[in-house]
Model the fold of this input.
Amino acid sequence: MLQQIRMYLRQTAFQPFKIRCSSGDVFLVDHPENAAVVKHTVLVALPEGDEAIMLSAMHIVGVSGVEQMAA
Done:
């Protein structure tokens, strides 16, 4: 999953994507600067302000483009 997140973040024409967690939570990454992969953790900026969440790789169960999740 981490490699897939890196792929989304490095795309020349960035496409928003969502990260699904084992808890059922879904986090939208709508800009490449709103997420980072550090070792086995993904840091995602939350849209409600200046906060972020750290997601352990072992709790990430899916990554998909926004248009794929709508379908």
The radius of gyration is 11 Å. The chain is about 20% helix and 40% strand.
